Amino acid sequence: MAETNREKLISYWTAEEDELLRKSYPDLPDEELGKLFSRSIEAIKGRAFRLNVRKSSRFVQEFLRQKTKERWKRLKGKARE
Question: Three-class SS of residue 31?
């Protein structure tokens, strides 16, 4: 039976991928997840949402801390100009 164009484009998630996503999604950055699964960030986030998997509080806190540091660096740089 020949595959249709739609079937060629769709890459279904396997049970093994779901399990790996459950284990890795909470603590890995999106870029690393994209490389790990060879899928778009949107596809990974969508699947995580359907599996009810969220980022860990530790990951979110560190992410926000890093973003705040970057923002302060930019603001200090502009103040010196």
Answer: helix
In this structure, the dihedral spanned by the alpha carbons of residues 26, 32, 38 and 43, taken in order and rounded to 10 degrees, is: 40
The residue segments making up the domain with residue 33 are: 14-80
Does residue 7 form part of some domain? no
pLDDT tens track for 11-49: 899 999 999 999 999 999 999 999 999 999 999 999 999
**34 — phi, psi (to 5°)?**
-60, -40
Residue 47: closest CA among 67, 30, 64, 70: 30
Per the structure, the count of domains in the chain is: 1
Q: Quick check: 47 and 21 in contact, CB under 8 A?
A: yes
Distance of CA 12 to the CA centre of its chain: 18
Which DSSP letter does residue 28 get? S
Place of tokens 């396997």: 14
Q: Please name the residue that has the structure tokens 């969508």.
A: 46
